[in-house]
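Dear H.,

Thanks for agreeing to be a second pair of eyes. The structure we're designing against is below in token form, covering all 287 positions.
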């Protein structure tokens, strides 16, 4: 009986959401996601009642899935599609984090990779900045007035889409919409840690962000030094069309990209990772 909604507040709040979707469906914006439009179309063609359609569409307010693999994909894409940048990253990784030779075997010093390869990390974080499309949601704990005109009432929720935050020119400068591989290097004046929300927004950040970044950096380092990757047909597409039908925080391309992976002979051999005793955290933009 304790959790029984006797006054119907929960049902009333839910109805507000349903009504909002009804209004939204009548005038869809031009940039609405493909999956939303197709889901709406299929339900309408099936003769589903409008009220039930609104209730079904309201279920989109759920957690999205998959980020590590697609963001690693895009980091590889952004890096290997820029030959000059690729050579810089290779040089950095080889000089700072790789030891050994073909006879004795090569080793990647993971601690050095985490702390001494700022350009490699910057490429990864810049990819995150431009590719993440998720939104952070926070509950308003007390009435808050923003900029003297926006009142956030206690008990309500605020949704903070990452894409507008990550491409805001007032925060990131005139190149906010462009890929700048040096943006997150230490000597860059464009770094804005408080406006980087790929891992979430304080006080709640992804607890596995250090682990995820470490595994991605390892894969990137090994691929960069050991291989050449190029499209089988033609050149890299600068802005490939995205599959916005995915329930994901990072969209994947609509069309698969066939690539040729060639070993670099000078670095062909046995490879191993040296984790070391270091517990040093990676200097991520979000902490």
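And this is the sequence the design step returned. I haven't edited it by hand at all.
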């Amino acid at each position: 009986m304790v959790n029984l909604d006797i006054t119907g507040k929960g049902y009333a709040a839910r109805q507000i959401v349903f009504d909002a979707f009804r209004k939204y469906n009548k005038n869809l914006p031009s940039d609405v996601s493909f999956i939303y439009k197709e889901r709406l179309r299929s339900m309408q063609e099936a003769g589903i009642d409008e009220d039930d359609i609104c209730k079904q569409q309201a279920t989109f307010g759920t957690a999205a899935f998959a980020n590590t693999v697609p963001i690693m994909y895009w980091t590889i894409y952004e890096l290997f599609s820029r030959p000059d940048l690729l050579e810089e990253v290779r040089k950095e990784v080889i000089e700072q984090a790789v030891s050994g030779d073909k006879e004795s075997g090569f080793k990647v010093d993971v601690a050095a990779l985490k702390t001494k390869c700022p350009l490699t990390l910057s490429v990864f974080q810049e990819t995150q900045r431009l590719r993440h499309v998720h939104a952070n949601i926070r509950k308003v704990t007390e009435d808050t007035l923003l900029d003297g005109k926006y009142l956030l009432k206690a008990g309500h929720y605020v949704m903070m889409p990452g894409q507008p935050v990550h491409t805001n020119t007032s925060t990131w400068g005139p190149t906010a919409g462009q890929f700048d591989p040096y943006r997150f290097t230490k000597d860059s004046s464009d770094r804005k840690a408080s406006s980087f929300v790929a891992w979430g927004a304080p006080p709640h950040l992804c607890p596995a962000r250090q682990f995820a970044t470490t595994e991605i950096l390892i894969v990137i380092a090994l691929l960069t030094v050991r291989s050449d990757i190029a499209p089988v047909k033609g050149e890299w597409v600068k802005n490939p069309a995205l599959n916005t039908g995915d329930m994901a925080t990072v969209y994947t391309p609509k069309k698969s990209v066939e690539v040729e992976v060639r070993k670099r002979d000078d670095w062909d051999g046995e490879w191993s990772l040296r984790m070391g005793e270091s517990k040093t955290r990676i200097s991520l933009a979000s902490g």
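Two observations from my side: The first strand starts at residue 98 and ends at 101. The two ends are 43 Å apart (CA to CA).

Warmly,
E.
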